[in-house]
Amino acid sequence: xxxxxxxxxxxxxxxxxxxxxxxxxxxxxxxxxxxxxxxxxxxxxxxxxxxxxxxxxxxxxxxxxxxxxxxxxxxxxxxxxxxxxxxxxxxxxxxxxxxxxxxxxxxxxxxxxxxxxxxxxxxxxxxxxxxxxxxxxxxxxxxxxxxxxxxxxxxxxxxxxxxxxxxxxxxxxxxxxxxxxxxxxxxxxxxxxxxxxxxxxxxxxxxxxxxxxxxxxxxxxxxxxxxxxxxxxxxxxxxxxxxxxxxxxxxxxxxxxxxxxxxxxxxxxxxxxxxxxxxxxx
Length: 282
Hints:
Blueprint: H1 34-39, E1 59-62, E2 65-67, E3 70-78, H2 80-83, H3 86-114, E4 125-136, E5 140-150, E6 157-166, E7 171-173, H4 182-205, E8 225-229, E9 238-243, E10 256-261, H5 264-268
């Protein structure tokens, strides 16, 4: 998963709730002698227990505005798992505020330039970034983001992003940071990715869809969003690959997604310090 977005020229530069389990208190031991218990002097009431911290909640932020036919829509959301990590929630809050500020400035400029004209598309803006959990492991929280932006024109553009939060170090990582090099990742996943892309394209476009139409050859792993997933829920054991619109096909085709297992070749490409977080797919 990468942190930066990869979208078309209509994009701005740069879905899972968590369960918090509380341990139940053990029931008090029954009195061995009922009569003695009844005659005994009552003990003072125990001090009130410290209230449990409120459960983390998902965040869904919106900020919209309208001036006649000119509209501006903005949304940014993340799941409760993110809110449970204050540093990560702060990171996303800062990004949200920055993107909102950029959109507001762009919209106000469009109103000055095209206000009063008959170009409604010129004064409409929209943006949506929604984070979701891919895998929640003891050390790592793997996330994906769906992104949409409209900055005028015939249509908006969509894209994807990825982030892996390391609870141990308190830092955010790109999925590629877990591997020794781009070449190692390409060597480990490239052939399986291209084969999966052909199958995905034929499911979407029909059995006669060409393997390579010349305009959109199979893109390298470096051009994709890489997601670290987990079927076993204990280690990263599968890799998700997303080709956004225009990367492996036309805008009308949309995105292509392929999920591949962690194989010995993939495991060999993982940096030594992260190998304990990975396991072969079963």
